[in-house]
């Protein structure tokens, strides 16, 4: 809240200047406050000062029209006819009488709530403004225009002087110093206005753009100003006039301006007090019992709890049944206790140093998630609340929450978001500092990503750790990022609980009405340091001196309600004591616990999924040939209404070649993928493929959406029309975001285990802009939060002479984060493979055939548990004539091959084989070609490690044993410090147990993933192939 002065300096208010001999006046100063205290004061830059009486059209009822025109012109000069534009411009520039006029368009019929200026004549008596012969004096018009502009000023900029900050340091600008300016808005807010005290009791017609009149169509200027001050300049500051929809602007005006709109009955007030008491009591209880524990308490913003409950109550009342929440550390335990009503025992046991009863590494208490189904006592409806577990990385959970919400809406058939909604909480510093917030906002209105409106609440304690807003943002408000999606933003003073409740109610109603995002910015403070053992006076001495002298919000509100006679002091105490007793009892029970259970903190339970399943049994992934043929043909056929649906000639060719493949019983990469997706759809599994340009495929190979060449938006998605009762298929081009979209898909994958959710990077290397989702959620999510995900990351990867970028998906990083032990060869058994998969954090693979790609995708669903799959995918192999697979490798009794052994002539006499080369991915085809060219087919065997992690120790051992006299080599196209080498080397050593060595053939170490020179690329490739083929 340190931004007001800066903003006001930049204000360009639009009120007309009306001449007055007394000179410019600040009228709010003579109305509402004394001395220099003033409300919005406008410095006019546009002068509507042509002597309008000289204009022949400015008389009678046309004045109302002119008034509307002028108002519209002020808002946007292009919104009016050019003749009006030129008239107002000329007039503002001071054109001589009669000169500004150009013939206007025909007069419009006066709209609802419009009153001809002539009808005001009776009101004008006292003000000495005569109406002569049916013609209104120009002052009447000017004064009405002025009043209208004033109203608009309040609506647009009233928030700048609203009393929003409980500390009263609001009025320091971003680069100023802290001073006690409470109640004293800056002098710079000047309205050069020529209406004077004598005008205050004149009555003005109200325009249709305000609701301050209630049923009244006109009010005195004094009353107008009073009501505008009440609506816009007290404890609520609303930014909404940038919203492009008139309907939405009017909706908000009505919610803020209607007389008496904020009135509450005593029961409502008592409810707020009770909730505030619990929120405050919870923190002070923890502070007393565990004074030296970090908990990131809510002190200074306890109102958050009643606020969230208000949003939930109202939303439930409006039909919502499930709320998915994401939030940072601040106040999280309080939210779990008092919003979700998580048993206090479970929270308190987290403070004791107890053993965990289940597997996993767990997480600190203020990161854990939760899931609760309970009765909402206010609305008497059942409601599901989930708080999604999150890492320390602020805001990273935002897109995850959105994905989870979207998935829940999808499975419930809630296409408009009426039943499921998301609620996101933010800190002020993180909300404006983290780019993921922007990425998440940009998903909010995309057809395949929208959650139909999110309520955002910012705990704006005016500090981030030790940094105050003067050093943490350049925007006036911490919430400005929300303006990009036209979300209304309600700033509200945390010390006025009723105002907070009012904006929460509006926010819930806004979401239910328009299904768009909305932001509540609770301006508050942080009573303690960043955490409870942190000293804030080191860095914010003035602010914290102020905080020390600030009465806690609960005490202020209790006092107020006592004064109003709503409660007695005894009642206040009673509510406090009761909650204290509840906490004490839970504390006693918690002390009896001997273990903590991570499962108590699961945010996405998959009820029924694991029950009755053999945890080590994988269903078959091979298919009946009929199914392959059926899907293959569908993927090769034009839309059923082919006669009307014009497809591109190139697509016709692709479909034809697909059909030829089906007839020849082979698949290429794209067809193999379609077989995997299609067959899962046949089994009722939902498949979702999301990422940049995935519909066509970056490399123009997929074509899952065919476009009518003559009709906009007419498309055909073959995979949606395979079987009448198939699972739903979603393929969607995403916004150009990785962090946001990958997070979203991860969230989507959390809702239902029976779905194949895939995210594809445009090129694999772009995954690094989503690194936080990879590190914090995908690789470690299960260990920290006992939450599984079968998300598939498709990462185009291979060095093909395209330069440093677009070559490497950074396979080495994924492998480095794999959790299997390089020194441990697990016991060999029938279940070797599935046990390994069960125990690892994720699967990393680099397939070289379409059949293997097909199987590994299907295996994601065939597994009795879920693991993320990180898949390096090819580029040139998409069209490589050898990178095709026969149906024979996909039919029943076939499966994913973790290692593809050599199948060529060298297998005829394995003991004569001189060298066994292991490799992975596309380089196999280069090696094979080089071997053939060098006539070494009998001498060298090549084995492909398709699943790199978990490492197929058993199969690698078998391959090595097959060629007892061969030297062993690992060949890769990546640099030595990249690719799989550093991962496989120790694992080969473990496999071989010191009996044989394995050498390296590949590029030398490098800082960059690939050269930018084609020539250099080819030279390097030749060298590595020579090396791999050398004896
Ligand atoms: C991405 C990220 N960077 C840095 C941090 C370290 N950190 C933890 S809390 C915090 C300050 C957060 O300030 P704000 O968002 O205003 O929340 P508050 O603690 O004030 O409630 C910082 C910098 C983090 N958790 N995440
Ligand atoms: Mg903060």
Task: Describe this entry's structure for a reader.
With 1031 residues, the protein is of the alpha/beta class. It has 4 domains: 139-176 and 183-234, Helix Hairpins (Orthogonal Bundle); 266-601, 3-Layer(aba) Sandwich (Rossmann fold), CATH 3.40.50.970; 625-889, Rossmann fold, CATH 3.40.50; 900-1029, Multifunctional 2-oxoglutarate metabolism enzyme, C-terminal domain (Rossmann fold), CATH 3.40.50.11610. It contains 32 helices and 30 strands. Strands 5-12-13-11-10-6-9-8 form an 8-stranded mixed sheet, with helices on both faces. Strand 8 and strand 9 (381-387) form a beta hairpin. Helix 20 crosses helix 22 and helix 29 packs across helix 32. The longest helix is centred in the N-terminal third of the chain and has 24 residues, at 266-289. It binds thiamine diphosphate (TPP) and magnesium ion. Thiamine diphosphate is lined by residues 330, 392-394, 427-430, 434, 459, 461, 463-465, 526, 530.
Summarize the structure.
It catalyses: N(6)-[(R)-lipoyl]-L-lysyl-[protein] + 2-oxoglutarate + H(+) = N(6)-[(R)-S(8)-succinyldihydrolipoyl]-L-lysyl-[protein] + CO2. GO terms for molecular function: metal ion binding; oxoglutarate dehydrogenase (succinyl-transferring) activity; thiamine pyrophosphate binding. Helices cover about 35% and strands about 15% of the residues.
């Amino acid at each position: 809240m340190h931004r007001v002065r800066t903003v006001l300096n930049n204000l360009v208010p639009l009120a007309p200047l009306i001449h007055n001999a007394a000179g410019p006046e600040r009228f709010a100063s003579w109305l509402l406050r004394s001395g220099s205290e003033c409300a919005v004061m406008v410095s006019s830059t546009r002068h509507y000062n042509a002597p309008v009486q000289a204009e022949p059209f400015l008389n009678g009822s046309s004045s109302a029209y002119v008034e509307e025109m002028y108002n519209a012109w002020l808002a946007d000069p292009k919104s009016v006819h050019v003749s009006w534009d030129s008239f107002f411009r000329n007039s503002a520039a001071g054109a001589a009488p009669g000169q500004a006029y150009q013939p206007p368009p025909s007069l419009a019929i006066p709209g609802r709530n419009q009153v001809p200026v002539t009808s005001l004549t009776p009101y004008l008596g006292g003000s000495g403004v005569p109406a002569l012969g049916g013609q209104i004096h120009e002052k009447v018009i000017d004064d009405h225009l002025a009043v209208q502009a004033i109203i608009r000023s309040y609506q647009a900029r009233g928030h700048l002087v609203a009393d929003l900050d409980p500390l009263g340091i609001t009025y320091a600008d971003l680069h100023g110093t802290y001073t006690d300016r409470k109640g004293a808005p800056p002098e710079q807010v000047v309205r050069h206005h020529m209406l004077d005290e004598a005008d205050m009791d004149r009555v003005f017609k109200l325009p249709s753009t305000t609701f301050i009149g209630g049923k009244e169509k006109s009010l005195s200027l004094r009353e107008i100003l009073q009501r505008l001050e009440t609506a816009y300049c007290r404890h609520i500051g609303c930014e909404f006039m940038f919203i492009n929809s008139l309907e939405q602007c009017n909706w908000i005006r009505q919610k803020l301006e209607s007389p008496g709109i904020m009135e509450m009955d005593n029961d409502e007030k008592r409810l707020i007090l009770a909730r505030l008491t619990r929120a405050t009591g919870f923190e002070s209880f923890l502070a007393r019992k565990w004074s030296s524990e970090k908990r990131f308490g809510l002190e200074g913003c306890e109102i958050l709890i009643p606020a969230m409950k208000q949003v939930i109550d109202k939303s439930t009342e409006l039909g919502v049944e499930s709320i998915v929440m994401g939030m940072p550390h601040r106040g999280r335990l309080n939210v779990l206790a008092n919003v979700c009503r998580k048993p206090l025992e479970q929270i308190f046991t987290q403070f004791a140093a107890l053993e965990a009863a289940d597997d996993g590494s767990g997480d600190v208490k203020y990161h854990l998630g939760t899931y609760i189904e309970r009765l909402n006592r206010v609305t008497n409806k059942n409601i599901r609340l989930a708080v999604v577990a999150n890492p320390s990385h602020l805001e990273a959970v935002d897109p995850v929450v959105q994905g989870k919400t979207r998935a829940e809406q999808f499975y419930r058939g809630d296409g408009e978001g009426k039943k499921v909604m998301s609620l996101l909480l933010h800190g002020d510093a993180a909300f404006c500092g983290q780019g993921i917030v922007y990425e998440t906002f940009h998903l909010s209105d995309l057809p395949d990503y929208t959650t139909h409106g999110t309520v955002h609440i910012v705990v704006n304690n005016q500090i981030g750790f030790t940094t105050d807003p003067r050093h943490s943002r350049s925007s006036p408000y911490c919430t400005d990022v929300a303006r990009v999606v036209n979300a209304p933003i309600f700033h509200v003073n945390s010390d006025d609980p009723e105002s907070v409740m009012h904006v929460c109610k509006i926010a819930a109603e806004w979401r239910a009405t328009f299904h768009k995002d909305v932001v509540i910015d609770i301006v508050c403070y942080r009573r303690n340091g960043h955490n409870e053992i942190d000293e804030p006076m080191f860095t914010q001495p003035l602010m914290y001196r102020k905080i020390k002298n600030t009465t806690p919000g609960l005490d202020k509100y209790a006092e107020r309600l006592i004064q109003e006679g709503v409660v007695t002091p005894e009642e206040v105490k009673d509510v406090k004591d009761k909650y204290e007793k509840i906490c004490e009892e839970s504390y006693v029970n918690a002390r009896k616990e001997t273990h903590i259970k991570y499962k108590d903190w699961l945010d996405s339970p998959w009820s029924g999924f694991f029950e009755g399943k053999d945890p080590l049994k994988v269903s078959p992934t091979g298919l009946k040939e009929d199914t392959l043929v059926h899907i293959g043909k569908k993927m090769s056929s034009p839309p059923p209404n082919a006669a009307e649906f014009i497809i591109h000639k190139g697509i016709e060719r692709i479909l034809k070649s697909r059909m030829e493949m089906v007839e020849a019983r082979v698949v290429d990469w794209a067809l193999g993928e379609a077989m995997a997706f299609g067959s899962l759809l046949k089994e009722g599994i939902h498949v979702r493929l999301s990422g940049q340009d995935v519909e066509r495929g970056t490399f123009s190979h997929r074509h899952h959406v065919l476009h009518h060449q003559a009709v906009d938006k007419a498309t055909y998605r073959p995979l949606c029309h395979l079987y009448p009762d198939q699972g739903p298929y979603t393929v969607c081009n995403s916004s150009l975001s990785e962090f946001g979209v990958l997070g979203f898909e991860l969230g989507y994958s959390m809702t239902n285990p029976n779905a194949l959710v895939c995210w594809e990077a445009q090129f694999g290397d772009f995954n690094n802009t989503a690194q936080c989702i990879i590190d914090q959620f995908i690789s470690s999510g299960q260990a920290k939060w006992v939450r599984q995900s079968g998300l598939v990351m498709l990462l185009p990867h291979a060095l093909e002479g395209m330069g440093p970028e677009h070559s490497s998906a950074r396979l080495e990083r994924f492998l480095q984060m794999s959790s299997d032990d390089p020194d441990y060869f697990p016991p060999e058994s029938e279940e070797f493979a599935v046990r390994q998969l069960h125990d690892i954090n994720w699967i990393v693979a680099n397939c070289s055939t379409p059949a293997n790609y097909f199987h590994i995708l299907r295996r994601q669903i065939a597994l009795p548990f879920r693991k993320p799959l990180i898949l390096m995918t090819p580029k040139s192999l998409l069209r490589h004539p050898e990178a095709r697979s026969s149906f024979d490798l996909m039919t029943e009794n076939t499966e994913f091959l973790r290692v593809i052994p050599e199948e060529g002539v060298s297998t005829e006499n394995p003991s004569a084989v001189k060298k066994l080369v292991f490799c992975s991915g596309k380089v196999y085809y280069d090696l094979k070609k080089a071997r053939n060219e060098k006539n070494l087919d009998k001498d060298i065997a090549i084995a492909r490690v398709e699943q790199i992690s978990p490492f197929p120790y058993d199969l690698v051992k078998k391959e090595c044993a097959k060629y007892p006299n061969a030297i062993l080599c690992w060949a890769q196209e990546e640099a030595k410090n990249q690719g799989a080498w550093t991962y496989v080397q120790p694992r080969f050593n473990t496999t071989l147990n010191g009996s044989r060595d394995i050498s390296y053939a590949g590029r030398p170490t490098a800082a960059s993933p690939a050269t930018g020179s084609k020539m250099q690329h080819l030279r390097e490739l030749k060298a590595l192939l020579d090396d791999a083929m050398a004896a």
